[in-house]
Amino acid sequence: MSKKILLVGCGQLGSRHLQAIVRLPDVSDVFVVDVNKASLDLGQSRLQELPDRNPDIKVQWSTQFNKEFSGGDICIVSTQAAGRSELIKKIAEELHYKNFLIEKVVTQSIQDYQELMRFSGEKNLPIWVNCKSRAYQLHRYIKSQLNPDNPIVFSTVGGNHGLGCNGVHAADLFVFHDGARKIHSLSSHIDPILHPSKRGEKIFDLTGTLTGYSDKGSIFSLSFASGHDSPPHISIVNSKSRFIVDHLCRFAYESHADKNWEWKRIIFDEDILVSSMSCIFINDILTKGCCSLPTLEECLPAHEFILSTLSPHFQSLSDQFYDYCPIT
Q: Distance between CA 45 and CA 9 in Å, rounded?
């Protein structure tokens, strides 16, 4: 049966989702909506890069929602976080979409996140969040090597990529490996700088260090420095094993107590591009009704930790009153 997909937001990430969608075998129509015509132009340009797109898929472009876009099989929301909760409600109620794949940061406040969870539960809407690191074969292997009863020490260290935006990814990966239902805040040391974002005038991020812990005693540490932009790397350690991972450089090593702690390289050659992984996620949702991304509920602990910990710092560093985190 032919499937119909709605893509809302066709910027840097949305256009990569589009590249994934048009390679799917059972899709007949794709509706692309973005208020910014330049984003639609970017999407059209990136379609020209694909040698293996499905020629039978019809793509329709628009700067506004159209009733003929209603009743499709899945909606991918790749807009900025501001207003996303209300946008999803509108799409569900007016265009009658039942399945959603959405970008992180899901919302800019815990209140909006909880309201979206309430709405999705009331309407029985499956929503998956594109924190894709936990879906890497590499991390599924690492998790298989960790005793779920043993605490871990998990740290992410890098340059100025943002505690908020990329912190959600790191926190979700900690939750995946630890099985934590909540990350309790332990400490925070935030640089007194409100970093502007290239994603918009009202978007910012922070640098510094956050630490937290889980109920079973695992420690989570997240550090992004303000003075350089070195790519982040991850360290995962427990009493029996240790791992080092650099996603950008495809670098991964493991070391185990029963092997005298000798370091051994882990093959990390999987395709982790959004345009490839989203192809798998969307196809799985369409054919199986689920995928390996975290659900809205599963991604809550990461968002709760990042949003609640950073919110007071945004408030103290700005002349403007913030009852949310201006990140995306």
A: 15
Q: How do residues 166-189 score in pLDDT, each as one tens digit?
A: 999 999 999 999 999 999 999 999
With tokens 């990390």, the residue in question is 268
pTM of structure: 0.96
- Report the alpha-carbon distance of residue 211 to residue 229 in Å, rounded: 21
Q: Are strands 241-246 and 251-256 parallel, antiparallel or unpaired?
A: antiparallel
Render pLDDT for 42-60 as a digit per residue (tens, 0 to 9): 999 999 999 899 999 999 9
| pLDDT above 70 for 1 | no
225 burial type by CB count under 10 A (0-12 exposed, 13-18 middle, 19+ buried): middle
